[in-house]
Amino acid sequence: MEPARVQYHGADILELPPPSQAWAADEFLNILQTCLPQWAPGESLASLGPTNPKYWHLMVEAKKLAYADLYRYNADPDFVAVPLAKLLSESYAATLCGKIDPQHASTPGSEGESRCRRYHRALHRDSDGNMVSWVNSNFGIFGSGITVPGYGVMLHNRGALFTLNPRSPNVLEPHKRPFNTLSAGFAMRGANPG
69 by DSSP, 3-state: which? Predict the structure, then answer.
């Protein structure tokens, strides 16, 4: 599997590709990096700081754009052509800059629904440079509600993220992997974790 990847302030940000939603974080960062000079000339997120309303406004608006693309395109790439290279390109991010008004909030799109569920994530790097990013998620609070007899291991219900909407790229089909919220990513500076 080839990770979704963008450069953000000199670091490679690597996330899981479709059908995971993780790649939307890469698009979000790319939008911010490309468009912030137009939205707030001479400023950076660091100079604005989290006490400035514009800091939050620009981040929320950039996320709205990334999530609109996520819901428009994300699905199993064995079934649907997900234009990931385009979505993660700086040239595409530049086309989105004009869609944000630095002074006013946009109306969120009607696509999608909250995909947020509880999960556990662990990241580790040892002294030899080996790294692991591990996510354990049952999706719903008790997953499928089914345990493995004799072991007490709860099975997930990740198939719940399919849709029956025939216009959706994530419509239910045999052998198709569902849209998922697993986000096991890394930031790297050269060969080192950033």
Answer: helix
User: ∠ at Cα 67 (167, 11), nearest 5°?
Assistant: 135
* Global confidence as pTM: 0.77
pLDDT tens-place values along the chain, 194 residues long? 889 999 999 999 999 999 999 999 999 999 999 999 999 999 999 999 999 999 999 999 999 999 999 999 999 999 999 999 999 999 999 999 999 999 999 887 655 444 444 445 566 778 887 777 666 566 666 667 778 888 877 776 666 678 889 998 989 899 998 887 777 788 888 877 76
Environment class of 164 (CB within 10 Å of its CB; exposed 0-12, middle 13-18, buried 19+): exposed
> For residues 1 and 100, what is the distance between their CA atoms, to the nearest angstrom?
33
